[in-house]
Specification:
Number of domains: 2
Mean pLDDT: 94
CATH superfamily of the largest domain: NAD(P)-binding Rossmann-like Domain
Order of helices and strands: EHEHEEEHEEHEHEHEEEEEEEHH
Low-confidence stretches: none
Distance between the termini: 36 Å
Strand order of the largest sheet: 10-11-12-9-13-14-15-16
CATH class of the largest domain: Alpha Beta
CATH architecture of the largest domain: 3-Layer(aba) Sandwich
Oligomer: single chain
Largest sheet: 8 strands, mixed
């Protein structure tokens, strides 16, 4: 019997999820809701170039499809009014599992309302912060249990600091496993236009610290390589995600090793197969992702909020 998947939003990231769905070994009916006719036409052309079996794809540009029961919903729209969209999905369709793209919501109030909605409906929700699922970060976590020191530094050139910071805030909580109340910060940020219409971005340098725990973000380096530097009580690592190389620093010795950073479509294949087969995945649940989102809202609120009122954080 075919499993039914609902994919909401089929832009760039949505299509990466679709590629993952088509690569799975599971027979699937894939129902796609994409409101842009142009995107539907473009994605249909791309699909023709992909080889797949035991899959059927159905495109809709509205939410008027018959009420169906889905084995999994993937919400790959942008963060604008996402809570309203989720309420619509919950009221129209029957499902118990959902993956939501980051940024999950644009303010803490909507995030908390979504938690209550999914709790009431008994829906399991994961937020797509997939570095937890990358083999190298799982290894670093395994090698550094019960850390009394952890710092994460991310450097590169214009890697969309505001919208992608959530991945590294989540990585920090994945490695640290407890909430940290940072009490020192140093930042030099400015607002710039996002490549996405009606959204904003930040560029510059951002540092927060609490004792031996710190996060540092910098998108003004000359190299476009994304490099993640991690220091713990035991080890120091430098992961070049672009070149897929890691350096281990230990007692004045440096070891270099090739690694594999999976693309979103590859990760989607693995995650979807595990979810359908009732296997455990390490993506953060909506409860686990609450910490990283709360840190993001508090870190950037002075750039996007006004006079203490809760406005949307316009990043995606």
């Amino acid at each position: 019997m075919k499993k039914k998947i609902l994919l909401v939003g089929c832009g760039n990231i949505g299509f990466r999820h679709l590629e993952g769905l088509l690569k799975t070994n599971i027979a699937l009916d894939i129902i796609i809701i994409e409101q842009s006719i142009k995107k539907i036409i473009d994605q249909k052309k791309k699909i023709k170039k992909i080889k797949y079996i035991n899959k059927k794809i159905y495109f809709y540009n509205n939410y008027s499809i018959k009420k169906l029961k889905f084995d999994l919903v993937i919400c790959a729209t942008n963060s604008y009014k996402r809570y309203d969209l989720l309420k619509k999905l919950v009221s129209k369709y029957n499902f118990s599992k959902i993956i939501i793209e980051k940024l999950a919501f644009q303010n803490i109030r909507m995030f908390e309302k979504a938690i209550q909605l999914f709790k009431k409906k008994k829906i399991k929700c994961w937020i797509n912060c997939p570095r937890r699922e990358q083999k190298i970060y799982k290894l670093i976590k395994k090698e550094n249990k019960n850390n009394k020191k952890l710092s994460i530094e991310v450097v590169g050139k214009r890697w969309n600091l505001a919208s992608n910071s959530i991945h590294f805030f989540d990585l920090f909580y994945f490695l640290n496993e407890k909430e940290t109340h940072f009490n020192e910060n140093e930042e030099k940020l400015r607002i710039i236009k996002s490549k996405h219409q009606n959204f904003l971005e930040l560029t510059g340098k951002f540092n927060i610290r609490y004792g031996n725990f710190a996060i540092s973000l910098n998108d003004q380096k000359k190299s476009s390589d994304i490099i993640v530097k991690i220091k713990t009580s035991k080890m120091k690592y430098s992961i070049n995600e672009t070149k897929q190389v890691i350096k281990f620093y230990s007692k004045n010795k440096v070891f270099e090793k090739k690694i594999k950073i999976l693309k979103q479509s590859q990760l989607s294949k693995i995650l979807i197969e595990k979810i359908i087969n009732e296997e455990k995945i390490i993506l953060p649940t909506i409860y686990e992702a609450y910490l990283s989102h709360k840190l993001l809202y508090s870190s950037f609120k002075k750039y996007f909020y006004n006079k203490g009122k809760v406005f949307n954080c316009p990043i995606t």
